From TrEMBL:
Keyword terms, alphabetized: Hydrolase, Metal-binding, Zinc
SUPFAM superfamilies per the UniProt record, alphabetical: Metallo-hydrolase/oxidoreductase
Lineage: Archaea, Methanobacteriati, Methanobacteriota, Stenosarchaea group, Halobacteria
Similarity comment text for this entry: Belongs to the metallo-beta-lactamase superfamily.
Protein name in the entry: N-acyl homoserine lactonase family protein
GO function terms (MF aspect): hydrolase activity; metal ion binding
Cofactor requirement: Zn(2+)
Keyword Hydrolase set for record: yes
Domain Metallo-beta-lactamase: 32-244
Matching InterPro entries: MBL_superfamily_lactonases, Metallo-B-lactamas, RibonucZ/Hydroxyglut_hydro
Pfam families: Lactamase_B (PF00753)
Length: 255
């Protein structure tokens, strides 16, 4: 298998003034909001598109005034949008061939419109649910963020999906946080696989203790997915990276 490279790029840091979101009574929690750039011999892949800085700076103008309180604790001073970070790695946004969306919450879809030439890969269940989410999930879906998918090249997949057909970049359904949530398994070498578990859990502690988020679509499915990722990691000898956990991001950055 040819060499595949993985780069983790943080788009923002969000500090929650409360912890019920992860069911932990331990004060505030600061999370990272990264995207992942995968350089494969047959194409360049972006996993998620991050949190749009314009939303943080002016939620009302962005069309998401209901999120003002949630993003009030977001630090974007020392971060940049993914497109601005590509240059340091030698890429242009137009060179992104595929964008895999783990799900369609606002902190993962902020820059979809920056990649009009890419092929987007998203679970069909997620595409369908995003337009008509239930009450608890509704605030997290910003239609204006993902509406461009109506015009873009979209592969609406169902179940597991091997992007290049060589096992190096695999989409793995992990529903629970949302109906169409998916993780991405990236094989970097003969004995090195990283599972980008996205929001299967909100932080490392939640993943290890099987703690769900208070607004998860399905607690039952969340627990099944956490255990599924854990089984997959043990079976394949893979490393699991939880998207919003700063320590997990740091480990990938140092990779």
């Amino acid at each position: 298998m040819s060499e595949t490279q993985l780069h983790a790029l943080n788009t923002a840091n969000l500090t929650f003034p409360y912890t019920p979101v992860v069911g932990l009574d331990t004060g505030s929690f600061t999370c990272s909001i990264p995207v992942y750039l995968i350089d494969h011999p047959e194409g360049t892949v972006l996993v998620d598109t991050g949190l749009n800085h314009e939303l943080v700076e002016d939620p009302e103008t962005y069309g998401a005034s209901h999120l003002e309180g949630m993003v009030a604790g977001t630090d974007i001073k020392n971060t940049q949008p993914p497109t601005a970070q590509f240059a340091d790695l030698g890429y242009e946004p137009s060179e992104i061939d595929y964008v895999i969306l783990t799900h369609l919450h606002f902190d993962h879809t902020g820059y979809i419109d920056a990649f009009p030439e890419a092929e987007f890969v998203v679970q069909r269940d997620e595409l369908q649910y995003a337009w008509w989410p239930e009450k608890e999930q509704h605030p997290f879906y910003l239609v204006d963020d993902f509406a461009p998918l109506r015009e873009y090249d979209v592969s609406a997949i169902s179940g597991e999906y091997d992007l290049f057909g060589d096992g190096s970049v695999r989409c793995v359904p992990t529903p629970g946080h949302t109906p169409g949530h998916q993780s991405v398994a990236v094989t970097l070498g003969p004995n090195e696989t990283v599972i980008l578990a996205a929001d299967v859990a909100y932080c490392r502690e939640a993943y290890e203790q099987e703690l769900w988020m208070t607004f998860d679509w399905s607690v039952e499915k969340t627990l099944e997915s956490i255990r599924s990722v854990r089984h997959m990691a043990a079976t394949e000898g893979a490393t699991v990276s939880i998207l919003h956990d700063p320590a997990d991001l740091e480990r990938l950055t140092e990779h």
